[in-house]
Amino acid sequence: MRRLLSALVVTSLAACASNPKPAPASPDSPALGQKPAPAEPTADAESFRATPPQPGKTPDLVLPTFQSAKLDNGLTVLVSTRRELPLVFAGVAFAAGSAQDPQGKEGLAELTYRMLLEGAGKRDTVLLDNAFADLGVSPAMDVQADGAQVGVRVLTRNLDAALALLSDVVLRPSFSPKAFERRKKQQLADLARAMGQPGVLAQLAYLEAVFGLQHPYGHLPDGTPASVQTLTLADVKDFYQKHTGPQAQAVILTGDISLEEGVALAKKHFGGAKGKATPPPPPPATQAPPRQQVYVVPKPGLDQTLVLVGRAGIAAGNPDEYPLELATTVFGGFFGSRLNMNLREDKGYSYGAGASLAPRLGVGSLTAYSSVRQDVTGPALKEVMKELSGLTTKPISAEELEAAREGLIRAFPGAFESVEGLGASAAALFITRRPLDEFNRTVEGLRDASAAEVQRMAEQYLDPARMQIVLVGDPATIQEQVTPLGLGKLVPIEPDEAPSPRAAAK
Amino acid sequence: MKALVAAALVFSGAPALAQTPTPQEAKPLEPGREALAIPYEKYALPNGLEVILSVDKKLPVVAVNVWYHVGAYHEQPGRTGFAHLFEHMMFQGSRNVADDVHIALLEKVGATDLNGTTSFDRTNYFETVPSNHLETALWLESDRMGFLLDALSPQKLETQREVVKNERRESIETAPYGAAREQAWHALFPLPHPYHGDVIGSMKDLNAADVDDVKGFFRQWYAPSNATLAIVGDFDLAKTKALVEKYFGSLPSHPRPQRPEVAPVSLTAPVVLREEERVARLPLLSIQWLTPAYLEEGDATADVLATALSTGKASRLYRRLVLDKELAQSVSAMQQSQGAQSVFTVDVVARPGVSTDTLLQEVDAVLDEVRQQGITPEEIARARTRYDTRTLAGLQSVGGFGGKADVLQSYNHFVGEPNYVAQDLARYESVTPEAVKQFARDTLRPGARVILHAVPPARRQAPLDSKERH
Fold first, then answer.
1. Which positions fall inside the Peptidase M16 N-terminal domain (chain A) (predicted)?
2. How confident is the prediction for chain B on average, in pLDDT?
3. Which residues of B touch A346 (CB under 8 A)?
4. How far apart are CA A349 and CA A340, in angstroms?
5. Which pLDDT score is estimated for B76?
6. In B43-133, which ranges are continuous DSSP H helix?
7. What is the pLDDT of residue A415?
8. How far apart are CA B424 and CA B97, in angstroms?
């Protein structure tokens, strides 16, 4: 192939050398085909374009399907079959996450799960990684507040071998002291790095503002420098012992595999697992108090200000979820939403602005975000608050609602094209303990939400008086431009200075 | 260059496929690779628009994907960032599509994977829509291809200029190492090379752009003859051909514009940059070399070496710098393959308290090892399995970044043959330990590279542990 390709390149160079400025093709040149295109189409012939085409017949809505089984030891097996390509996502989902970090030991879940890939079975870190690499993959580990997942996307022919390795990782981790010391230092350095990123600083301050540092959701999975410093190998082993085991785990298999095949493989590789751990209780719901202050993370001279405006939202499965999702979408969920159209397309303050509802097992968050030009921090924040109030003064129109409803529902098939996407969805269902037909319920819920309900949700949950505000940026500019807005006292916080002692002081 | 050849073949009226490798001519696919063959049909309209159609009925969605064969490479000096700024203008309305509704209209019918992107080599626009809205997508794409200028206003340009400047602030000025990396890039491609500027451009050049520039750019580069339309997914072939003819057939065109020919640049001495890092808190060492263009001899070798150096915990750089010596927080090596010339980059982020000079010595030690001994056949085999898996995974989506439509478009753009996946992967079969050794010796030379030290001021560097901080 390369020879042919090189030949083509040589021809091209030669042609250019001998004819550096090829004459433009004449109108009847074969370069444009046999028939010259009309020079300027007549207005009449093009008038059909003035009317947008009518859509064809609506296709059936194809939603992903999930099937599950339970092994004798209590292990859940979750399968979603998609046969088009010889690919399978294979993973293990865990029902405990950083919400189970003990107070003062934030970062423990993260460190524990990361240790699973630092040696397992008869292999140390390097041998384990090479064994995965022989299958053409690196395992991905994801630790969140409500749970964790480790998984790989492999060719079907490599599935059995991949599950053998995953079973070592999940059931026979080495927990070597040397690897532990190294991994812990790496997590500390990760934190040091994270503290330089405006986005991470904003998240840290946001979690504190919305949930409070004492709440199980009040910290990032990484923990803090002080809390990670205290972690020991015994802590890691305890966490693993207490929170993992077949009754608190699911083997996830999506793609080129059936439920029957999945169960057989799960039995073979995970059927012998024992352990009494059960899924932990959901973290407590939390109220959204009125805003009393504006949190400011100072980053002198930063060219943009990061703006997060939000509050505690709802738990997965809350009946308010679907009408609230619609209200949030109209406000900031789509590119064409009120917020983005205002901040980006009308004012040019930002590269983008949006809002999202993230339900969790306990309580999720409802967040609007944008990164705005430093010198318009005040005006931009004012517009965000104005759009929130606007949901009451200029209620959601029928047109806005139907666009959000149809857009969200019709996007479902396109959102589930990959086996790894199906795997992530399956893990989310398990971790948030939702039924297998969750996506059908979602579609029904979005379809059935009435305009009155959606409007009520907008006013109830997107009330500007209950939205906490976090700003990361130049403190002098923020002081000067945000104080006059009267949104609350500006309180500087330095998440990288001493987050943990502050938590301990409470 | 390859793009030109491909174009010549397609538009010369000769059956292009007779002169480029076809799937049938390719050697039989290896087991597990059968699924990589993408059935497709390609033809050109009389106005020069190339059309690639590929039916895939797994879900009731269809991807519409347009590549314009123009990127930042084709900009004029002093007009950096223009191709990308122009891309933004393509979402701002055209003769029959009102301002600002393009995206909203697609969103409300349930479009996914909806975007436009600009690189040095091309600009693309794409959306995946429920199959019954294919015509809506074709209407939108054709209206902006044919009638963008009818709706252009100085005010719309002004707003998008501001949006793009914010995008630049987000991706460069306030991104960790963003400003420092920009300096290194400028050093790699000295003026007048068209890769000198960033794709996003400089603030100065963005400020200079005016409506006449937009008009000129559109007239020169955005003709049907310089574009390829790909439709992939659940659609009826005959009906779709008729729709393509209806919406695109009458759009005016002109001969395909010439791609500027630019001599490759080379470095004759190392360039060392020491930049004060304003955003990130850990030092970054970034080493960059100029390497062969996409699909040219050496490009596949560079991919394999990059994988062996930094993919996975057992990779050479990770093992030595992160696991064994605990000097680095992360490592990455990659071949950024581009149409005119590529760049091979090794990035290492230091642990707190470790200097970038120490990291440089360590990276050089690893590279010297490769220059002396090459890498092992196992490392090459692992990389190949990885690429097979990754490539197949890309074909799961009909559209979006790296989806099937993008894959067909990319090969069509660079070699004139949309279904080149198997041939692309076959390149890796000929990569040998010896070839990797030669590449490391001849191309990744210590004397021909840009070395960037992006170091935060001392007081901002994180101490080794929290006890030292009080």
1. 88-194
2. 90
3. 159
4. 10
5. 84
6. 82-89, 101-108
7. 86
8. 39
Dump strand ranges (E) for A162-287.
Answer: 249-255
Run of H or E residues at A420: helix A419-431
pLDDT (tens digit per residue) in A173-214: 999 999 999 999 999 999 999 988 999 999 999 999 999 999
B232 touches chain A (CB under 8 A): no
Distance CA B352, CA B218 (A): 49
- Give every CB contact of residue B247 below 8 A, 6+ residues apart in sequence: A49, B138, B139, B141, B142
Whole-number Cα distances in Å, A100 to A29, A190, A275, A280: 72, 21, 18, 8
* Strand-pair partners of B334: B345
Rounded distance between C-alpha atoms, residue A422 and residue A417, angstroms: 8
Nearest CA in chain B to A302: B174
Phi, psi of B336, rounded to the nearest 5 degrees: -90, 95
Nearest to B396 among A55, A185, A417 (CB): A417
Q: Which two tokens stand for residue B29?
A: 């696919």
The pair of three-digit structure tokens given for residue A199, joined into one six-digit string = 């986005």
* One-letter identity of residue B127: E
The one-letter code for the residue type at B102 is H
Cis peptide before B192 (omega within 30 of 0): yes
Rounded to whole angstroms, the Cα distance separating A204 from A183 reads: 22
Q: What residues of chain B lie within 8 A of the CB of A41, using their CB?
A: 250-252
Cβ-nearest to A137 among B130, B389, B462: B389
Distance CA A89, CA A420 (A): 6
Give the pLDDT score at B37. Answer: 87
Is there a common fold for A67-270 and A293-416+435-505?
yes
Residues 6+ apart with CB under 8 A from A208: A218, A295, A493, A495, A499
**Continuous segment of H or E residues that includes residue B364:** helix B356-373
What are the structural domain ranges in chain A?
A: 67-270, 293-416+435-505
Chain A residues touching residue B256 (CB < 8 angstroms):
31
A469 contacts A343 by C-beta, under 8 angstroms: no
Q: Is the pLDDT of residue B355 over 50?
A: yes
Q: Which helix (H) or strand (E) segment is A79 a member of?
A: strand A76-81
A433: left (phi over 0), alpha (psi -120 to 50) or beta: left
Closest CA to A321 of A468, A144, A454, A145: A454
Lowest mean pLDDT among A87-91, A278-282, B74-78, B398-402: B74-78
Distance, CA of B416 to CA of B14 (rounded, Å) = 13
The correct CATH number of A67-270 out of 3.30.420.10, 3.30.2290.10, 3.30.830.10, 3.40.50.880 is 3.30.830.10
Instruction: For chain B, count helices (H), then strands (E).
Output: 17, 11
Structure confidence at residue B459 as a pLDDT band (50, 70, 90):
low
Distance of CA A503 to the CA centre of its chain: 27
Contact A110, A143 (CB under 8 A): yes
B126: its two tokens = 């794409």
Looking at residue B32, its pLDDT comes to 56
Q: Give A278→chain B minimum CA distance, Å.
A: 32
Please determine, looking at this structure, whether the domain spanning A293-416+435-505 carries the CATH number 3.30.70.360.
no
Per-residue pLDDT band for A140 (boundaries 50, 70, 90) equals very high
Interface test with B, best of A80, A155, A178 (most B CBs within 10 A): A155
pLDDT of residue B285: 98
Q: Using CA atoms, how far apart are residues B138 and B151, in angstroms rounded to an integer?
A: 18
Of A326, A312, A325, nearest to A364 by C-alpha is A312
